[in-house]
Write a structure and sequence with these properties.
This protein is α/β, with parallel strands linked by helices. It has 2 domains: 2-33 and 152-296, Rossmann fold; 40-146, Rossmann fold. Helix content is 37%, strand content 19%. The chain has 12 helices and 10 strands. It has helices at 2-5, 37-51, 67-78, 100-107, 117-122, 127-135, 149-155, 177-184, 203-210, 232-245, 254-266, 287-296, and strands spanning 12-18, 21-27, 57-62, 83-88, 111-115, 139-142, 168-173, 191-196, 216-219, 275-280. A 6-stranded mixed sheet has the order 1-2-10-7-8-9, with helices on both faces. The protein has a 4-stranded parallel sheet with strand order 5-4-3-6, sandwiched between helices. Strand 3, helix 3 and strand 4 (83-88) form a beta-alpha-beta unit. Helix 8 packs across helix 9. The protein is globular, with a radius of gyration of 19 Å. Bound molecules: pyridoxal-5'-phosphate.
Length: 307
Amino acid sequence: MTFFNSFKNSKNQLLDSLDGCRITIKREDLIHHTVSGNKFRKLKYNFERLSHEKDPALLTFGGAFSNHLAATAEAGKINNIPTIGVVRGEEWGDKIVKSTTLDFCQKQGMQLFCVSRDDYRKKEKAALVQKLQSQRKNLKILSEGGTNSLAVKGCKEILTKEDTRFDVICCCVGTGGTLAGIIESSTSQQFILGFNALNNSEVNKSIAKLTQKKNWSVLSDFTFGGYAKVSHELIDFMNYFYQQYEIPLDPIYTGKMLFGIFDLIKRKEWCWGENILVIHSGGLQGIKPMNLRLQKRKMPILNYGNP
Ligand SMILES: *Cc1c(COP(=O)(O)O)cnc(C)c1O
């Protein structure tokens, strides 16, 4: 597992001072171009466990734009472990090359199965997955988004000793596994603020299952209508942000969080402490497919990382 062990800490970059708040950003997006950010952290110990198996393989789940699928596919290739992706939506079956993400996954050697939403919901209980498991003894299953205790263990390595000086740590939330790891490695004086990327009211419960600590909360005010939904205002903000700071944000997670942080500070509603650390959790592979979608809808695009 030299790939996963060769990297430890990301650099912190001072971003700006806004209305008395000092914002620093942790550049987890620079870890690797695809196995980046929290996906690197979440996969690290899952792949390490696989490497102790004889003839291992990994099966996991995701949508046609999934950062998790892309990262798993490339990590599998780098570490020489075969991967299988179960994709939400049978309609993708005959147009894999039209999905930037799925096309990438396939090129890394991931075997893809596009299934109906019904079968997708069944996860490891679906007939297809059961059949694949019976065909291969050491096929391990990783849940959608890759959250499990090994993922949380990896995410505990995002914060370092130097980061104890921050009052508040901000991070995007999908399944909440990343946030749980950060909460677990925080000090009791720190507050961990999550920014929900989807309208998932159950996420608080999921996080509470992964950590006993109470120094956190999740805001759902900046979902922009739901997972992978965007607006003109959000795209404008992300282009402004890139122009101002030369840091690319992704449209599904980090763009919405930074919009939220800037918005709350501007409206003088920021109340979690002035010394802020923001985790850039990566996800930049999602820019290209989003731009293709925006172009089709004749909307403004993200003018960094053009298709
Ligand atoms: C997957 C992803 C998340 C969500 O992580 P969870 O552990 O599922 O909450 C956040 N940010 C980025 C960039 C991601 O790709």
